[in-house]
Amino acid sequence: MFAKLSLRLRIFLFFCLLGLGGLASVGAALWFGYARAVETTTANGFTLAAILAAFLILALTVTIWLLFDENVAKPIERLAADMRTRAHAGVDRDMDMRAARYLGDLAPAASAVAKQLNETALNTAQAVASETARLTAEKARLTALLTEIPVATILVNPDGQIVLYDGQAAEVLALIGVPRLNAPVTEYFDASTLTASVRTLQKTGKDVTLTAPSKDKSRTFDLKLKPMEGGGYLMVIDSQTLDISPDAARPLVYDFDLLDRTTRDAERHLHDCELLDLCFSVFDTETTGLLPHKDDIVQLGAVRVLNGRIIEGETINQLVDPGRPIPPASTKVHKVTDAMVRGQPNIHEVARRFHSFSQDAVIVAHNAPFDMAFLRRHAKETGVDWDHPILDTVLLSAVLFGASETHTLDALCDRLNVTIPPDLRHTALGDAYATAEVLVCMLPMLTARGLTTFGQVIEETRRHGRLLEDLN
């Protein structure tokens, strides 16, 4: 019956209830005070009446506030978050009308607008999908062609950062470090040799051939630098003499938006950087238990997000030998057994690789303090400092959907239409990939809320820090 009333009438009734309840509280208190005064023939009864009236009015106010919060404020907050997921995260599903049943015509109207926008977006998406399919086919042909050429190719922007590398180049870079976009090419090749050759390239505008040692001087490579229009250059590495598997998959890994990245962009203070310009290293761990001070990591998975997109091909999916038996209760959750980790690298080696993988990136995790505690415990033996900036998707969820909502990874995935295949849930890479997809959905939502820079987001998440304290 109450749900059929208009929103304005319901709000009016709320305040009527507050007014009538206040009058009733005062009347009851006065009656009680008058009865006491008659019995005792003193004015103490009226003092007691005043105190009783104050408590009754306070109780009534709290009750009305709770009703208003539960039936109006929270549903409006949920409805706003629901609309943002559709507007900025591309989520297409029916709105929860039950939660907003007391908001009159607001929820149906919002649903109608969302459906109309989704239909328009669907038509556009179909046209884009057709063109994307054509471009994907062309990319596959290009990848197949490059696979047959015995050279490794790296595209470098004017600031010396890697914009593209093929499969052969990935294997070459892996001999020196962890291949990744946006990394300075001097992290892999001797800076002085490369800088001198690039200077010659810029001066003459002609190809430059050189032999360059790796950064750690452990090996040398025959390189050719070819100038590119608009700045930057193409590095071609003769890989015939290198031990590269001829049958390995060799996808292209690239982000051409990096061609426009300038030194000024790179030198901005992190807090002033636009969210969508940042690089994120999203990771998850599986462990022998839930106590970071005594349990150990048995699997680490990570993916990279750059310019608001997951970089396919830049991942870590590594089992870790904890040096101790894995409890059966833990194996039941993540399916990692003692036999699987036997002979795998220890946490020190894996942590160093992940540290390199996360250079110049913001580390992201779901309940980051838990996972980071395992890494920091071994920091001294590993020889690395975990001084990366960190974002937590639990806190981002609280910012976007309200602290009163559920913020588990499963709840977030359900809210944002992110699917975790059942066989990948509670695997390090599966959960890391799901967290990365959630992050990609939330970045434009944060920007739409006016939280456009990293500093603004960090400031907002600090308001919800208690969530992580309770979670851990």
Explain what this protein looks like in three dimensions.
The chain is of the alpha+beta class. The protein has three domains: 2-118, no CATH class; 149-253, PAS domain (Beta-Lactamase), CATH 3.30.450.20; 269-471, Nucleotidyltransferase, domain 5, CATH 3.30.420.10. It has helices spanning 7-40, 44-88, 106-148, 167-174, 191-204, 263-267, 328-334, 338-341, 347-357, 368-377, 379-382, 393-401, 409-415, 428-448, 454-461, 465-471, and strands at 151-156, 162-165, 208-213, 220-227, 233-238, 253-254, 279-287, 297-306, 309-319, 362-365, 390-392. The strands form two sheets. The chain has a six-stranded antiparallel sheet. Strand 8 and strand 9 (309-319) form a beta hairpin. It is elongated. The two termini are 43 Å apart.
Write the layout of secondary structure elements.
Blueprint: H1 7-40, H2 44-88, H3 106-148, E1 151-156, E2 162-165, H4 167-174, H5 191-204, E3 208-213, E4 220-227, E5 233-238, E6 253-254, H6 263-267, E7 279-287, E8 297-306, E9 309-319, H7 328-334, H8 338-341, H9 347-357, E10 362-365, H10 368-377, H11 379-382, E11 390-392, H12 393-401, H13 409-415, H14 428-448, H15 454-461, H16 465-471
Helix pairs in contact: 1-2, 2-3, 2-14, 12-14
